[in-house]
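Researcher: Please translate sequence to structure tokens.
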Amino acid sequence: MTAILHYIHDPLCGWCYGAEPLVRSAASVGNLELRLHGGGLWPQPTKLPDDMRNYIRQADTRIAAMSGQPYGDAYLSGLLFDPELVLESRPTICAVLAAEALDTSKALAMLAGIQHAHYEHGLHVVRQPVLASIAAECGLDPEAFEEASMNVAVDAHIAETRALMQRVGAAGFPTFVLECDRDLTTVAHHRFAGNPAAFQSWLGDQLPNGGAFHAVSSRTAV
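Model: Translation complete:
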């Protein structure tokens, strides 16, 4: 039997960026399928007031200290305070879904590519040319990616993710939910911050007989 780790995230959530090492470690656990659920932290195009930008920078400092994730000066001193910065989750979630539609194994790489482009390299990842460039770096054909981006059911996916969050009582992003034999258990992942190896080991201990299978998916069915 293959267990499922549901990862409720948003590509533009700093705490989800901090959880990236945990996600990578989970993806390598045998007999565990990893499913990505984009939840839409920023449902509408949003420009941040200065006080929110300063608050986010303080939070990013805590996230970096806890997770060891790299934050680039192009983001901290550039993008974060760029008056043209717009935060909107839909294009980034759409990009992850489009990558998965073309190659299931590329979904996690696309998510990580978006996160690093934003937090490390200070790029405007809500813009389609930037997303297309990230997709190309993941090995996806640009024309196929553009077509897939126009055809994925991103709004339905976000709505289904929100329904899952309500079902499991998720308060925000990120949330990990372990499903074994249809039983859903929310994972207290914060205790593994900065220690992905311990998270990987813990997940393995929760599963039935281990195996070599693993997959990454953005499907929302549970």
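Researcher: Any highlights?
Model: The CA atoms of residues 21 and 209 lie 24 Å apart.
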